[in-house]
Write a structure and sequence with these properties.
Length: 281
C-alpha cells in the first residue's frame, strides 16, 4: 500500500558550502517524544531529489524515529548549481556535503544515535563515510544499494564504465535523461562511478572498510536491475567486520525506487531492525 498522508510535519534547515552554494536537510521529528529516539539520515540515489523521500521520512517519524533527508549536490530545489562545464564535483564533494549534513544533524538531534541510510549511490557514500569517520555512526542501512563493479553485473557495465564518463566529458555533464540512467550528473561523479565500476574500489575510504564494525541492515529487492543481488552482496562484503542483517524482499509494486513510497516491507524492516540493535524509539 502506498504511503498516504502522514501526520508529522517536515521542517527544513539549510547548510551553506564554502563555495557559496547551499543545500537543505528535510527533518521529520519523531512523534513519540522519546528522548532515546534514533535518527535515520537518508542519502538519496543518484539523480534523485530529496522531496521524493519526504513521505518515507514522515512515516519513519510516525513510527517513532527521527528522520533526515540530505539534499544531493546538483539536485537542490534551490541554492545549488546545475552540473556543467563550469561546475564540476565528484564523490569527494558529495562526502563533504554528507559530513556537513551530519554536523547539522548532531546540532538538531543532540545525543541521538545516528544511522545512515543509503539508497543506491547513497549506499556507496554511506559505506565510504563510515570508513572515513569511525565511531561516529551507530549503524548503516543499505536499501537497493550495490557496487557497480562490472564483475557482478556483466560486460555491458564494463562498457558503461568507459562510455558514461566519456559522454560526460564531451557534453560537459552527464546527460542522464537522454541515456536513461540517473539525471544530469557532474563529470566528476561519473568519473568516480566509472572507476568503481571498472576496479571495484572506492576513490576514498577503501582502506578503512575492513575495520568498520557497525551493525548493518542490507536490503535487496527482487527484480531490481539497478541493484542485483550479487552486486548488493559485493558491497556488503566490503565490510567483513560488520554485523550484517541481510534481507531480500519479494513484493509486487516495489522496485529500485518505489520502496520509498510504500508502507511495507522496507519501513517495518528498518524499524524492526533498529529495535533489534537496541535503538528503541
Amino acid at each position: 500500500m502506498s504511503l498516504g498522508p502522514v501526520a508529522p510535519a517536515l521542517d527544513h534547515v539549510r547548510v551553506t558550502r564554502a563555495e557559496g552554494t547551499s543545500f537543505r536537510l528535510t527533518l521529520a521529528r519523531s512523534t513519540s517524544g522519546a528522548s532515546t529516539a534514533p535518527v535515520v539520515v537518508l542519502q538519496p540515489a543518484m539523480g534523485m531529489r530529496a522531496r521524493y523521500y519526504g513521505p518515507f521520512a514522515a512515516a519513519l517519524a510516525a513510527a517513532g524515529v527521527h528522520a533526515v533527508v540530505v539534499e544531493q549536490r546538483g539536485h537542490e530545489a534551490e541554492g545549488g548549481r546545475l552540473p556543467g562545464r563550469d561546475y564540476d564535483f565528484g564523490y569527494a564533494e558529495l562526502l563533504d556535503d554528507l559530513e556537513s549534513a551530519m554536523t547539522m544533524v548532531r546540532t538538531q538531534f543532540p545525543g541521538a544515535p545516528a544511522y545512515l541510510l543509503g539508497h543506491s549511490l547513497g549506499g556507496q557514500l554511506a559505506v565510504m563515510y563510515a570508513a572515513l569517520h569511525p565511531g561516529e555512526l551507530a549503524g548503516i542501512i543499505l536499501v537497493a544499494a550495490s557496487t557497480p563493479h562490472w564483475r557482478h553485473w556483466g560486460p555491458r557495465l564494463l562498457a558503461a564504465s568507459y562510455l558514461f564518463p566519456l559522454a560526460a566529458r564531451v557534453v560537459g555533464h552527464f546527460p542522464g535523461a537522454q541515456l536513461r540512467f540517473a539525471g544530469r550528473e557532474a563529470r566528476g561523479v561519473m568519473r568516480d562511478w566509472g572507476r568503481l565500476a571498472r576496479t571495484g574500489r572506492f576513490v576514498s575510504g577503501e582502506s578503512g572498510l575492513a575495520e568498520t564494525d557497525l551493525p548493518v541492515l542490507a536490503v535487496s529487492i527482487e527484480g531490481d536491475w539497478l541493484g542485483p543481488v550479487a552486486a548488493v552482496d559485493a558491497l556488503v562484503a566490503k565490510l567483513p567486520a560488520a554485523t550484517v542483517s541481510r534481507v531480500h524482499v519479494e513484493q509486487d509494486g516495489i522496485d529500485h525506487f518505489r520502496w520509498a513510497r510504500q508502507d511495507e516491507p522496507v519501513l517495518p524492516l528498518i524499524t524492526g531492525w533498529l529495535s533489534a540493535v537496541g535503538a528503541t524509539p
